[in-house]
Amino acid sequence: MTVSHPLRPSADLARRLALGVALATTLGAATIGSAHATDQAANQDAGEPLKIGISAEPYPPFTYTSSDGDWTGFEVELASAICDQMGRECEITPTGWSGIIPSLKAGRIDMIMNSMSITEKRLRVIDFSSPYYFTPGAYVAARSLDIEPPEGLDGKVLGVQSATTNATYARRALRDSGVDIRLYDQAEQVNRDLLSGRLDLILADEIAMTELVERDEAADFEIKATAPHHEAYGEGVGIGLRQEDDALTEDVNAAIEAVNQQGICSELSERYFGTDVCVG
Amino acid sequence: MDFGWLSDPFYQEYLIEGLINTLWLLLVSAIAGLTLAIGMAMARIRGPRPLAWTATAVTSVIRGTPLLVQLFFFYYGVGRLLEGIPGIQDSIFWGLLRDPFFYATLTFTLSVGAYSGEILRGALLSVPPGEREAGRAFGLNPFQVFWRLWLPRAVQLCLPTLTGEMILLLKSIPLVSTIAMMDLLQAANIIRDETFLTYEPLLLIAAVYLLLTIVLTLCLRQVEHHFPGVQPVRRAWRPFGQPRRV
């Protein structure tokens, strides 16, 4: 797995998710029938703290450890708001990302809350709450380039990070536009080739792109447009839950809705990303 | 094993594009690289001292560093420097310089030049000097001696080794997937990312590479058999074994 830069992790997001699914479906399949999972629902009603599983690898600004060693970040704060709303005590439980779905199924954690996209493949193994955030893809190009994607892409060179939802979107939705799509391993390689002029434009996660165009070296670049909703992007990011924990799923959904209505999510999003990515 | 994705025209297109790019890279790098190898070998044997030293230094650096590092060095390092030259983005070279194909062929050419140059140097040195002297005695000038006698004799000696180098070159090509070029490995990665199948696409491209290697070996074996001056061999179907000398 690539090591993400502490300040711009989210471009790695979808790639991690894709990898996560690949591993999780393999590993998860092995634990579906295991006996552990069934006792869990009972434990939760006993008033024990809910264990919120996050990736043990920091994933700033979503989840990371602050200077005093405590976990913080957009999703950690949002999780605590959701738990307050439910009136439950919660415990952040770092877990290896690739084994996070098996951990949930085995009962070591009760929820997964770490930018996990709701995908069809994952839904076969676990349940999801309603989505709590969604980031579209954003096109970035030089200010001097007069372009309004997805119009006028013919003959242009577009860079995307491979194994991301943006790459899937670009390959599926833009294939007839005449654009030349280049796939890179790392998000930063895409950014560098845009800044050096090898790429005419790039398509990447909006959070990462908002951060990119604020850099001094990217002063001549701007976000041209965001990609429309497309099946490649899925429904957004939700909290992963065990399929048998229906009561908990309902509570979580109600809490997410309340947190959204009170504007807590939007406030956190503006603070961490400078843009509102909350759904609802 | 699920090979259902093979019928998806999306993936077929990527695989074919990847195959074509792979073959182009192999052809261009092999021809340019072997040409460079002749220059490198001669520079080290006969070149004036600064040239010989340069060739030795280049050979040492290329042979002493990983190919992937070189690829990154040229694409992300040298490429960036070239892009900084004022006005270059409007020049006719820009189309070439922004294309990863250029950097890939540059890297592979240097690599083949360095490795095969060493092989060729050894072969050139092992041609008995008496043969060259005989050529001179027959009235050939030094230039003719080199092109018509010395080099063909050396190539004859090291052809099987050069075949091995070409196979190694073919199998280095998947590295270009890291500099945003569509090759077979990148096509396989796309399929993996979208279908969550890891082994099937990799197995497919492994099979394609095996097939390409077999075809390449057969072709170069024919060159070995028919290279001027090679001893006639018994015409038995021995595509992989050593040709039996009569």
From TrEMBL, chain A:
Keyword Hydrolase on entry: no
Compartments in which it is found: Cell envelope
Residues spanning the signal sequence: 1-37
Matches recorded under Gene3D superfamilies: Periplasmic binding protein-like II
InterPro entries: SBP_3_CS, Solute-binding_3/MltF_N, TAT_signal
The entry's keywords: Signal
Keyword Acetylation part of the UniProt annotation: no
Pfam families: SBP_bac_3
Domain Solute-binding protein family 3/N-terminal per the UniProt entry, residue ranges: 49-276
Family: Belongs to the bacterial solute-binding protein 3 family.
PANTHER family hit by this protein: ARGININE-BINDING EXTRACELLULAR PROTEIN ARTP (PTHR35936:SF17), MEMBRANE-BOUND LYTIC MUREIN TRANSGLYCOSYLASE F (PTHR35936)
The protein's name in its UniProt record: ABC transporter substrate-binding protein
Source organism (scientific name): Halomonas litopenaei
Lineage: Bacteria, Pseudomonadati, Pseudomonadota, Gammaproteobacteria, Oceanospirillales
From TrEMBL, chain B:
NCBIfam families, A to Z: HEQRo_perm_3TM
Location, primary (coarse class): membrane
Annotated InterPro entries: AA_ABC_transptr_permease_3TM, ArtM/GltK/GlnP/TcyL/YhdX-like, MetI-like, MetI-like_sf
TM region(s), chain numbering: 20-39, 51-76, 101-120, 202-220
Signal peptide bounds: none
A matching Pfam family: BPD_transp_1
PANTHER family in alphabetical order: GLUTAMINE TRANSPORT SYSTEM PERMEASE PROTEIN GLNP, MEMBRANE COMPONENT OF AMINO ACID ABC TRANSPORTER
Subcellular localization: Cell inner membrane; Cell membrane
Keywords per UniProt: Amino-acid transport, Cell membrane, Membrane, Transmembrane, Transmembrane helix, Transport
Membrane-protein topology: Multi-pass membrane protein
Coiled-coil parts of chain: none
Biological source species: Halomonas litopenaei
Official protein name in the record: Nickel permease
Heme recorded as keyword: no
